[in-house]
Amino acid sequence: MEQQNYQYQNDSVFVQERSVSKKFFANVFLWMFVALAISTVAAYFLASTPSLLQYLVGESGFTIFGYIAIFAPLGLVILMGAAMNRLSFPALVGIFILYSILTGVMLSFILLIYTLSSIAICFAAAASIFAVMAVMGYTTNVDLSQFRSILMAGVIGLVIISIVNMFIGSDTLNYVLGFVGVAIFTALTAYKVQEIKRIGEGLDEQGNELALESSNKLALMGALSLYITFINLFLSLLRIFGGRK
């Protein structure tokens, strides 16, 4: 009888831990979809409001406000990562929403550059690639963390060269960067999903407010990471296949 009770308790703990892991994973994707929705609304609203766009884009290119809209999201990501433990969860949510809005502002520019059909096709392609790699990252037994340093180096190099190309304006380099970006962010999707899965599996259900807030923060940061990966995959595909107006 005691052995049966012990086995029952072990099974209950195992089921409980799996439930916590699945709930955490679901929260990550929920926040990611929230960010996508906010960015989509912001991009459409701004692209359809010329009176606001004139403050971001002038005849000679981006205005100072336009450059702020482009580079401010990077600062917000750094802030969230550096101050995650010190900021409250509501404060992190506020920064996350602000980041999503500013990303939508940046994405509104592509609505002015590319045709709607090419944007829709590239978005569908990005969503399909992301979904496939997310499943692979979740189910694979291969430890993808061994590729972390290579992927991070690739991302840093891609960002630096992309910033340089903003001032050079090389179409050929932009095209090449598109292929490099697709390769990097496709692989990064699988890596990030596996990393988030492991974080969820490592969570302890302590049942106190501190543990709950920590779990919520980690879910939000995981959503931010996946959201950035998806957006960059989408933009990389646009660099290659996007049809300009």
UniProtKB/TrEMBL annotation:
<comment type="similarity">
    <text>Belongs to the BI1 family.</text>
</comment>
<feature type="transmembrane region" description="Helical">
    <location>
        <begin position="218"/>
        <end position="241"/>
    </location>
</feature>
<dbReference type="Pfam" id="PF01027">
    <property type="entry name" value="Bax1-I"/>
</dbReference>
<keyword id="KW-0472">Membrane</keyword>
<feature type="transmembrane region" description="Helical">
    <location>
        <begin position="150"/>
        <end position="168"/>
    </location>
</feature>
<keyword id="KW-1133">Transmembrane helix</keyword>
<dbReference type="GO" id="GO:0005886">
    <property type="term" value="C:plasma membrane"/>
</dbReference>
<feature type="transmembrane region" description="Helical">
    <location>
        <begin position="24"/>
        <end position="44"/>
    </location>
</feature>
<keyword id="KW-0812">Transmembrane</keyword>
<feature type="transmembrane region" description="Helical">
    <location>
        <begin position="91"/>
        <end position="112"/>
    </location>
</feature>
<feature type="transmembrane region" description="Helical">
    <location>
        <begin position="118"/>
        <end position="138"/>
    </location>
</feature>
<dbReference type="InterPro" id="IPR006214">
    <property type="entry name" value="Bax_inhibitor_1-related"/>
</dbReference>
<protein>
    <submittedName>
        <fullName>BAX inhibitor (BI)-1/YccA family protein</fullName>
    </submittedName>
</protein>
<feature type="transmembrane region" description="Helical">
    <location>
        <begin position="64"/>
        <end position="84"/>
    </location>
</feature>
